[in-house]
Amino acid sequence: MKIAVIGAGKVGSEVVGNLMRTRGISEIVLIDQNMDRVEGEILDFEHTTAYTHNPGANLIAGTYEDCQDAGIIIITAGPSIQPGQTRIDLAKTNTNVLRSILNEIDRYNQEAALIMVTNPVDILTYGAYRLSSRPRNKILGTGTLIDSARLMTIVGKSYGIDPKNVFAYMLGEHGETSFAPWSIANICGLSLEEFGQMHVNVNLNRKQIEEDVKNIGLEIFRKKGYTNHGIAAGVMRLVIAILADEKSILPVSVNLEGEYGLSNVALSVPCVVGKNGIEKILEFRLTLGELAQLKNSAEFLQEATEDITY
To answer: Bridge partners of 206?
Structure first.
């Protein structure tokens, strides 16, 4: 499969590096307004192949015309939030960036699955649905994928087990209103309490864990000025699920049309991800309190998009 990455910043470049180590990819196109940067990144990546295992994907410093025939297009372009800037300001700026990108992409490719990474990712995922002609199953926002990975890591460390054995999600907005639906969290099919009785009985401070999950990204940003490794890993999780037609259940941002009683908003809920993108939106039996938190997240995002023109 041919994959295009829009944006040659720290996240986009990290994604390209991960794609190079992935089988099933025939061509990787990197696109950015700064062509010198794109060409420099591609040259740099090409010179790693003598020392690293590479499945052999062809690397291209490309233009939007090179998106033609791509099966997946990953959008990471757009400025990050700046000191003193609100998320609403960033949403307006990046919606305009997204509009120009989609105008170009749709000239050459209206079939590829879009993976939205640019923040605020839920608002931009909804924007992509409004601005593009492709169906909603072809527009996937990374949403709370990274938040869920952080949650599973913290819980796994607490119990002294591999985080991949923890099945837990952060849902809703990728931001302050996200939440962990503990009612569906489990370790290999056992509730956290049942597993604790069998293995290590841990008194989890669930409220603190949720706060830690939401603040880790800010802590990373404070220490190194950006985040890229975790989100790139989340992007790759979606790419592999599509490439391999895994039918994996992942928390991704998707435009809702009545699911959970919500419409005209994109946020993260559990979805089946396969070769067709989002193949099914799953409506888990959440508690009334968790449903209220999901609704709160939706209302926050809808209020944030009130002044945005699509």
So the answer is: none
Determine the structural domain holding residue 13 and report its residue range: 2-141
Q: Is 174 a catalytic residue?
A: yes
- This prediction has a pTM of 0.96
* Structure token pair of residue 219: 């802590």
Residue 13 inside a domain? The answer is yes
Count: domains in the chain: 2
The Cα–Cα gap between 198 and 64 comes to 55
Cα 233 to Cα 229: distance, rounded to the nearest angstrom = 6
- HSE, side-chain direction, 13 A CA sphere, residue 199: 16
- On whether both 152 and 298 belong to a single domain, the answer is yes
Q: Are strands 113-116 and 72-75 parallel, antiparallel or unpaired?
A: parallel
Contacts of 18 (CB under 8 A, 6+ apart): 232, 233, 235, 236
Q: Which of 53, 174, 199, 229 is catalytic?
A: 174
pLDDT tens for residues 57-104? 999 999 999 999 999 999 999 987 777 777 778 898 999 999 999 999
Q: Give the domain-ending residue among 141, 158, 184.
A: 141
